[in-house]
Write a structure and sequence with these properties.
- By secondary structure, the protein is mostly helical.
- It has a domain of about 120 residues.
- The protein has 8 helices and no strands.
- The longest helix is centred in the middle third of the chain and has 49 residues.
- The N and C termini lie far apart (about 85 Å).
């Protein structure tokens, strides 16, 4: 018990001595500022201590008055600005519509090819005589069909990626796309579901 009391007293004494001799953070910062060397003329370092307060900062570029004089008159005329925005929106809408039509056309072609192949397969497997005579030709046609479907699927994916890029560019240009789930996407999803069956 005596040993524990002695340890507690010794710890308290050491803490008191360290607190008494410790320098405050503010005193330490002031001492560092006094001993701070002056920066060389070759490299100038700006901080809150040496930033000019009475002078104005220079800005690169023409003064604000000149910018208004150089601005096109369309920006000051609200009717012309609205007409320009409408032309831009119409141009983007045309581009997006053409791309959606392209996707719809490619999806339709893929769907037709898949239906046609299923009909040929049903006719082939329905007649045993045809299966015996033309099995090599059917296998060859099946391989060709798979490569055609893969090629068309890649073309659809590329067209969709191009549509996404066009939508992103239109968004950056200030036009918002109102219809995210377009009909070509839904038609493509249906054709993919059918091909998986």
């Amino acid at each position: 018990m005596k040993h524990a009391k002695l340890m507690a007293v010794a710890t308290l004494l050491l803490m008191g001595v360290s607190i008494a001799t410790a320098q405050s953070l503010g005193d330490y910062a002031r001492a560092l500022r006094k001993n701070k060397p002056e920066p060389s003329a070759a490299s100038r370092h700006y901080d809150n201590d040496n930033l000019p307060t009475e002078e104005t900062l220079s800005v690169v570029g023409p003064p604000p008055g000149d910018a208004a004089a150089q601005a096109p008159k369309a920006a000051t005329d609200p009717n012309a600005a609205a007409a320009d925005r409408q032309k831009t929106a119409d141009a983007w809408k045309d581009k997006l519509d053409k791309q959606k039509e392209k996707i719809a056309s490619l999806s339709h072609e893929l769907d037709l090819e898949q239906r046609e192949y299923r009909l040929r397969a049903a006719a082939f497997y329905a007649d045993a005589g045809v299966r015996l005579r033309d099995s090599a030709q059917f296998d060859k046609d099946g391989t060709q069909y798979k490569s055609d479907v893969d090629e068309k699927q890649k073309a659809i994916d590329a067209a969709k990626q191009e549509l996404d890029q066009l939508q992103e560019e239109a968004r950056k240009a200030g036009m918002e796309e109102k219809e995210k789930d377009s009909a070509p996407d839904k038609a493509q999803d249906k054709s993919q579901d059918k091909s998986k069956e």
